[in-house]
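User: Please look over both lines:
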Amino acid sequence: MLSALMLAAAVSGNATRLAIEPWTGASLATATSTAVKYRLHVAGAPNATVRLRADGVAKGWLAAFCTPKVCAPARVDVTLPLSGQAVYQFELIREDAGGPARSGARITTDDGVTISVPAPP
């Protein structure tokens, strides 16, 4: 069940860690109202820059990394704050009504950490 879903890719030390779960609470102002929304946790060394890219999205769908100020399609560079943690609203947006009704995705970092984003039920 999506509400209980928590997937994580983790490695030791200050290496990059990713976790994904369903989005809860209010959507960001930059978010698309019809998108499938997830909370993406990114953790690693403080002040590190982590490049995230999304792939494996079905044809007719778009993946986006959103903050309160902007949504970036398919990839984003994250500079982690002193806490070493950042949260993004990750969205899967159906752009083509003729495409599949559902899509998942895969998020990969520049240092090889990968996490799967499940298609909604």
Observations:
- The domain at 2-117 is CATH 2.20.130 (S-adenosyl-L-methionine-dependent methyltransferases).
- Confidence is low (pLDDT under 50) at residues 1-12.
- The chain has one domain: 2-117.
